Amino acid sequence: FAILMPKQEYFTNAFYTFDIDQNDLTAGFFGNLIVQVNASVPDIINSFSKNVTIDIYISGARSFWIHNTGPISCLPLILANFRSAETDAYDFAKPYNEVAQYFNHKLKEVVVLLRKDLPLAAIIYVNIYSVKYSLFSNPRKYGFRDPLVACCGFGGKYNYNNDVGCAETIEVNGSRIFVGSSTRPSVRVVWDGIHYTEAANKFIFSQISTGAFSDPPLPLNMACHKSVGQPFLGLSCNNLFQFSNLWSRY
Fold first, then answer.
1. Which uninterrupted H or E stretch holds 232?
2. What is the pLDDT of residues 143-167, one digit of tens each?
3. pTM tops 0.85, yes or no
4. How far is 168 from 222, CA to CA, in rounded Å?
């Protein structure tokens, strides 16, 4: 496998994106109290800081695009399994979003510390939570509908069932039914109750790539800069410009 390993210089020239921590938090809600999941957040953040960012930095990484976590309580997986949870004005499960917000607060704190500890790095914090929350709370503004209902699923208010997933089959009244998607996935937000649709991801990328939700507020094609007007030489901004242009076509 040695021939498949990237060259040493690639570690410095690469652009590292982290999109965290939906899986850890969501998995924690099953079998644990919310207060226990909340208590685990500092350990998750510290592990990310030490074992991921710093270790990669030591290997030569210099440019980081760190996304915070999204509004977990808007996912059909959470809504279908925790029906007794307090809801907000948009019918989102409020306590679970509060955990996500706490996680994001602690993540931003550690990003500030990482900038001090890793002086050669360009570290951008991306508030993807706000973009996703806006999409869930005001879907029609962006051309979407039924944001809390899975596009590909089966059963119930949220079209989600723990026992049968997208593209599987289920027996109902003696008949085998294929679990497929809606006829218009391009206007749906959540694909299978857990993951976002391609259309939603495209919208989210179009928002965060502008830099409007970033700290510092740099667009993706300038993410090799540590701040406005200060280029970071470890990464070619031309490569990021080509990357962002490529994504904008899809």
1. none
2. 999 999 999 999 899 999 999 999 9
3. yes
4. 43
What is the distance between the alpha carbons of residues 243 and 37, in angstroms, rounded to a whole number?
36
- Token output for 39: 């208590």
Phi, psi of 204 (to 5 degrees): -60, -45
Mean pLDDT of the chain: 88
From residue 76, give the alpha-carbon distance in Å to each of 122, 152, 194, 198, 249.
Answer: 36, 11, 7, 17, 29
* pLDDT tens digits for range 157-213: 999 999 999 999 988 888 898 999 998 999 999 999 999 999 999 999 999 999 999
Q: What is the DSSP track for 113-142?
A: HHHHH-TT-EEEEE-HHHHHHHHHHSGGGG
Q: Residue 64 contacts by C-beta under 8 Å, 6 or more apart in sequence?
A: 16, 17, 18, 53, 121, 122, 123, 124
The pair of structure tokens assigned to 219 is 């667009």
Please give the angle made by the CA atoms of 80, 82 and 88, to the nearest 5 degrees. 95
Decide: residue 33, CB within 10 A, 0-12 exposed, 13-18 middle, 19+ buried: exposed
- Strand runs labelled E in the chain: 15-19, 63-67, 122-126, 169-172, 175-178, 214-215, 225-227, 230-231
C-alpha separations of 176 from 164, 166, 222 in Å: 12, 14, 52
Return the residue matching tokens 């500030």. 112
Contact between 206 and 220 under an 8 Å Cβ cutoff? The reply is no
Q: Which of 131, 133, 179, 134 is nearest to 155 (CA)?
A: 179
